[in-house]
Amino acid sequence: MKSRGSFGRGLVYVLLFLIAVVFLAPIVIILINSLKGNFYISSSPFTFPTEETFVGFENFIKGFNQSDFMRSFANSAFITVASVVGIVLMTSMTAWYIVRIRNKFTRILYYLFVFSMVVPFQMVMYTMTYFAFEFRLNNPWGIVFIYLGFGAGLSVFMFSGFIKSIPREIEEAATIDGCGPVRTFFTIIFPILKPTAITVAILNAMWIWNDYLLPYLVLGSGENKTLPVAVQMALTGGYGNKDMGALMAMLVLAILPIIIFYLFCQKYIIRGVVAGAVKG
């Protein structure tokens, strides 16, 4: 019986290892090709750099200079941080209101947020782009507002599930002590929401930082372009030719910050997802 259990656990570990290899393989391939010359990337993309193919940091220097990396990095950082902060604050307050004020209006509002999760972006992108230009949202501050709308559905859903597990007696005690709604939320409720808030922040930060289509449609390829747009536009030559070495190097620099952020915060994801699974 014990040997059967050990065999089952071993099989699970092997399966998880294979899944990890599948997900990590693209990152490893990008990394090893960022250190090779263009010709060798095309002829042998899956081999490690050798003495003949290794070009050092030449691709990184070339890509850094050609892609206006620092400006694009600053744009992406501002948009990501501002959007994530806005999403976490606004949707947590919205979810608290929806859960605690039970009426027809809040039920409709909740289902609208849930419905927004299943609407494909392609269905609304042309209309959204038109209104973004009409209302002068085609700038870094404007796209933060747009990201708040697109990120609200999942975030409100996650916060609502967690808030349902928080006993009302905590808020009633704060009210007896003289706390108003705003003070109750920021001193009592929001600290309790920390696991879910970190989960929401991680998921939205990874999506916004890596997003290409929405910034391309709204901001274009001008001075406000984000890092994914800058890499794609700057490293594409005439007739669609690409400097693959510089492109791989810039992809490494582009994904490195979000990988570091994820590694520091990933322990909170499962905790935040399951925190509201059981209603208190």
* Spatial extent as radius of gyration: 23 Å
Tally of individual helices? 14
Oligomer: single chain
Helix content: over 70%
CATH H-level homologous superfamily name: MetI-like
State the separation between the terminal residues, measured CA to CA. Answer: 37 Å
When the domains are counted, the total is 1
Poorly predicted residue ranges: 276-280
Q: Given this structure, which CATH class is correct?
A: Mainly Alpha
- Computed structural class: mainly alpha
N-to-C order of helices and strands:
HHHHHHHHHHHHHH
Second rung of CATH, namely the architecture: Orthogonal Bundle
Overall number of strands: 0
Instruction: Provide the residue-averaged pLDDT.
Output: 83
**What is the molecular shape?**
globular
If you consult CATH, what is the topology?
MetI-like fold
Biggest sheet overview: none
Strand content: under 5%
